[in-house]
Amino acid sequence: MNVTAIIIAAALIGIVGIIVGFGLGIFGEKFKVEVDEREAAIREVLPGNNCGGCGYPGCDGCAKAINEGTAPITACPVGQKPVWDKIAEIMGVEAGEQEKMVAFVRCAGTCEKAPKRYLYTGPNDCNALAPVPGASDKACLYGCLGHGACVKACQFDAIHVIDGVAKVDESKCTACQACIKTCPKHIIELVPAHKKFRVQCSNPEKGKPVMDVCSAGCIGCTLCVKTCEQGAITMEGNLARIDYNKCIACGACAEKCPRRIIRMFGISVEP
Length: 271
Description:
By secondary structure, the chain is of the alpha+beta class.
């Protein structure tokens, strides 16, 4: 064994290692990315779900946008007020009062109310079923497909399919909008949590065509519009819609609705 050769090889490796390390140190210092301490502090208080509900690419993008002033301190829908207050403190501003929003599924077509047209045995996924014309096994083609794409999308266990229709657990909902983005029927929306009266239907047709496919659908009778003294209900085509900026939750529309499709949510009521 040539001991000298081994010593020389070891020495060369050591020298190369020193040179490489020195070079990396220089390049690292020269090309390092400066991290704003305030941005890092904001990122630290964000929940870290990277759900995209803020509209930015993950929590890093959200923190950067807030720090740069291109996003409000309330940009993260998941954190809600506790996180907003911390960010406001970091930014040196007042958080103010913010309205809690929750997801709401505009469909009351349970298995009993919206009868099945046939026995579906395909992929158990809404997005796989939706592109096929008329593929819904429910008589109503506008309602919840009931195959749980929204359930899979929700990171917070806040939505489940019950009796053929997706239902939101408002105590868990963070308004991240993942369910809204994945629903192929576009029947989930954000509503103010404290506004309890909501129209639970998405069928744009009127009268008998609605009654034929769902015993609970809005038939476009406009009685709710005529009843509301606040002008908080209007018709979008044949479907009643509530303006939550005007609604005072008097309940007159719900009492007048012959289909009981305007209902109070958040407490248990009979349809």
